[in-house]
From TrEMBL:
Lineage top rank: taxon: Bacteria
Family affiliation: Belongs to the ABC transporter superfamily.
Source organism of the structure: Dorea hominis
SUPFAM superfamilies the record matches: P-loop containing nucleoside triphosphate hydrolases
Protein name: ABC transporter ATP-binding protein
A UniProt-annotated Pfam family: ABC_tran
Length: 267
């Protein structure tokens, strides 16, 4: 099983202003959502995982190996990061070239890179767009191109930064399906999110970041039950949970399907 162990992780951009304050976590193959207000340290944390930043103290162990001092290029075969804004990631003139670029950079032949790129584009719903310039696509589709570009690299860890931005209902469902498929392939799936309903419907585990530390960590339902602690982190419960509590139900329901199943079982 793939694991990431975080041991006493500290990080500062400026001396005396710690962004991360001694994090200790183990991330496994349960899909994991990292939630918290802006400035809580979420993006800094995933940049450290990807090697874009270096810890000021502590270790990041991937499958037992300390990766905290490895380069982005070295980590590229194992850890993929899908940027929040696809415009920060996309630079090629065709969709196919964009998705082939990463696989070729980690040593795949051109033919193999094309094969995995076409599979990834099919997975994200962009089959038939291979010759289109990515910037002729809408923002939601460009997001799918950026996802395909990382999926094609077949990394053991896939990190999504705000994947649901600019996505409609069907787009969110497709991203959810992609994450579930990656999890079935025994990959570590991590995502930074502000969409609590998507977290409730998609993830096994949630970690609440606040002021550079993990305020809560557990299965999604257990985390979202902690209303008072969530409020300290300036987070809200999923809408279904909020509504059912207002209606007087003591049971926690993460989504409408949970509530409907409960009602049918208790008729």
């Amino acid at each position: 099983m793939n694991t990431i162990e975080i041991k006493n992780l500290h990080f500062s951009y400026n001396a005396g202003e710690e962004i991360l304050k001694g994090l200790n976590l183990t991330i496994d193959e349960r899909s994991t959502a990292i939630i918290g207000q802006n400035g809580a340290g979420k993006t800094t944390f995933v940049k450290l995982l990807k090697g874009l930043l270096r810890p000021t103290e502590g270790q990041i162990l991937f499958n037992g190996q300390d990766i905290s001092k490895q380069t982005v290029a070295t980590l590229a075969k194992d850890i993929g990061l899908i940027f929040q804004n696809p415009n920060d990631q996309i630079f090629k003139n065709t969709v196919l070239d964009e998705v082939m670029f990463g696989p070729m950079q980690i040593g795949m032949s051109k033919d193999k890179a094309k094969e995995v790129a076409l599979k990834a584009l099919d997975m994200v719903g962009l089959k038939g767009t291979e010759k289109i310039n990515p910037y002729d696509l809408g923002l939601s589709e460009r997001k799918m191109v950026s996802i395909a570009a990382i999926v094609a690299m077949d990394t053991k860890v896939v990190i999504f930064d705000e994947p649901t931005i600019a996505q409609d209902y069907m787009g969110k469902k497709r991203i959810q399906a992609i994450m579930k498929e990656l999890q079935r392939q025994h990959k570590i799936v991590i995502s930074i999110l502000h969409d609590m309903d998507f977290v409730a419907e998609t993830f096994d585990r949630a970690i609440v970041f606040a002021k550079g530390d993990a305020l809560l960590d557990g299965d999604v339902k257990s985390v979202f039950k902690e209303k008072d602690i969530l409020e300290k982190a300036y987070l809200e419960q999923p809408y279904t949970m909020q509504l059912c509590y207002e209606l007087g139900y003591k049971e926690a329901f993460l989504n409408p399907e949970d509530f409907v199943a409960y009602k049918k079982a208790n008729q």
